[in-house]
Amino acid sequence: MKIAMASDHAGYELKEELKKWLEQEGHEVLDFGTNSTESCDLSDFVYPAALAVGKKEAERGIFVDGVGYGSALIANRIYGVTAAVCQDPFCAKLARQHTDSNVLCIGGKIIGSGIAHEIVSVWMQTEPITDVDKYVRRVKKVEAISEKHLKKLTEI
Ligand SMILES: O=C(CO)[C@H](O)[C@H](O)COP(=O)(O)O
């Protein structure tokens, strides 16, 4: 799978670790930075990475900052991106099964390496539930909100 990755300084080390592991697993990683632990502004890296997901240049995105919410906040402003902050594998499972998220956001300051790998592994392997009406309906309702309020990337 082609995966866009991004982080700020607080997520840099975990991003690097996850990137190495994803590449070993056979995935192609498009790394949008940052490239050190030097203090930086998250949106400079997450915004272009989220655009790559929105434009379908990458199938999924995995963004790492200090606690995760900042990356999700930025990414969810982009049409076609559904970003979820996950702090454990159960969250990661539901973020795919119930909401069909295409971006995973994790916090390098709060999630240890072992749990982070498990979160990514579960999130990568879990498919959305498509045979239960309520989940399909809910995903469609969120898509309708995007259609109404977000600009399609072809219109920008
Ligand atoms: O977690 C974050 C956003 O979700 C950021 O990593 C955090 O806000 C960065 O703060 P600082 O510059 O003080 O390290």
UniProtKB/TrEMBL annotation:
Among its keywords, does the record have Isomerase?
Answer: yes
Q: Which UniProt keywords apply?
A: Isomerase
GO-annotated molecular function: ribose-5-phosphate isomerase activity
Q: Does the keyword Isomerase apply?
A: yes
Which EC number(s) are documented for this chain? 5.3.1.6
Query: Which first-to-last residue range defines the signal peptide?
Result: none
Q: Which family does it belong to?
A: Belongs to the LacAB/RpiB family.
Protein known as: Ribose 5-phosphate isomerase B
Q: Which organism is it from?
A: Sporolactobacillus spathodeae
